[in-house]
Write a structure and sequence with these properties.
With 254 residues, the protein is an alpha+beta fold. Helices cover 34% and strands 33% of the residues. The protein has 4 helices and 15 strands.
Length: 254
């Protein structure tokens, strides 16, 4: 009788599968270094470490006067060469007309063509320099490529940066639309998971539901010699998580 009761009781207990907890770390989705290919003097840094900003916000500005002057010089040079090019074109058209009437020699026609081609090349070069001057002026202001937070300031206003052999970093920023919990999982777990699936992360004794963003294709060899694959679980942004960046937690995998 006792054995029958035990069997009946076991039949009433629902079967549950315990989730496996994998050690994980809460981190930024990615970190971006703000810099510029230009050399110049930093005029202003508009944000400070820990400060958040919106996409498109001005973060850093160089002294723009040298680049504004270069742009004006390029514009003036292009206007001058445009007038010279029109003169050369008129001379070429006149030479062609005279040549057709056998009034002008082949040598003179070729000289007019050469003069026009030379002016055209100089005009094209000046146009390229103007485009570069416009790009340089744009690069003298560094704007936020996304909404995020400033992690670190690496330069100061008034500092002169020389970006010839190596780019000088100015700020390190990270997006805050989403955060990422990263863990190392085994090959067997990797084969069962797919990007987009929901998983639960436990950070500071609180549970957060997220979605698998990606799973590494290539393994990392652990000190013990086993292969592990990095699992990235994306979490929605929460102000409560910001002070916990870098903290350890777990990811629950059914």
């Amino acid at each position: 009788m006792t054995r029958i009761v035990r069997i009946l009781l076991l039949g009433l207990i629902p079967l549950t599968s315990a989730a496996t907890e994998y050690p994980a770390t809460l981190g930024w989705h990615h970190i971006l270094t703000i810099s510029t290919p230009l050399s110049g003097k930093i005029r202003q840094i508009k944000v400070a470490p820990g400060e958040t900003f919106k996409q498109g916000a001005l973060l850093v500005s160089l002294d723009r006067r040298p680049y504004q002057a270069a742009l004006k010089r390029s514009q003036s040079e292009l206007q001058r060469l445009e007038a010279s090019l029109k003169d050369a074109e008129r001379e070429l058209n006149r030479a062609k007309a005279l040549f057709e009437r056998t009034v002008l020699s082949t040598t003179d026609l070729q000289a007019a063509e050469l003069a026009f081609n030379t002016q055209q090349a100089e005009y094209d070069l000046a146009q390229a320099k103007l485009t570069q001057a416009e790009i340089d002026l744009e690069y003298s202001q560094m704007r936020a490529p996304f909404s995020g937070i400033v992690l670190e300031q690496l330069a100061q206003p008034g500092e002169v940066i020389v970006n010839q052999c190596q780019i000088t970093p100015i700020l390190r920023i990270a997006p805050i639309q989403t955060l990422v919990v990263r863990a190392q999982i085994s090959m067997s777990q990797r084969s069962r998971l797919k990007p987009g699936e929901s998983l639960v992360a436990v950070i500071h004794n609180k549970r957060y539901e997220g979605k698998i963003e990606k799973i590494a294709v290539l393994p990392q060899i652990t000190p013990g010699g086993s292969n592990k694959y990095q699992l990235d679980v994306e979490l929605p942004f929460s102000d409560a998580l910001l002070p916990l960046m870098g903290n350890k937690g777990t990811i629950e995998i059914p």
